[in-house]
């Protein structure tokens, strides 16, 4: 297989920002929605009394 055919096999992802890599090696863009949900969970947990955490 030459470099040209390898290039055709690669799916180009065009985004600016951050990504996580899943167990299969797929990149998943981190979205604003993902961040908002994470912050919401963090805030809710930080408001619990330490005896319930």
Strand content: 5-15%
**Molecular shape:** elongated
Number of beta-strand segments: 2
Main sheet attributes: strand count, strand direction, barrel closure: 2 strands, antiparallel
Query: What is the count of distinct domains?
Result: 1
Rg value: 19 Å
Textual characterization of the structure:
By secondary structure, the chain is α+β, with helices and mostly antiparallel strands. It has one domain. 42% of the residues lie in helices and 11% in strands. The protein contains 2 helices and 2 strands, in the order H-E-E-H. The protein has helices spanning 3-9, 32-46; strands at 19-21, 27-29. It has a two-stranded antiparallel ribbon with strand order 1-2. Strand 1 (19-21) and strand 2 (27-29) form a beta hairpin. The longest helix has 15 residues, at 32-46.
Descriptors for this entry?
two-stranded antiparallel ribbon; 2 strands; alpha+beta; 53 residues
Structure, briefly:
The protein is α+β, with helices and mostly antiparallel strands and 53 residues long.
Q: Secondary structure elements and their pairing?
A:
Layout: H1 3-9, E1 19-21, E2 27-29, H2 32-46
Antiparallel strand pairs: 1-2
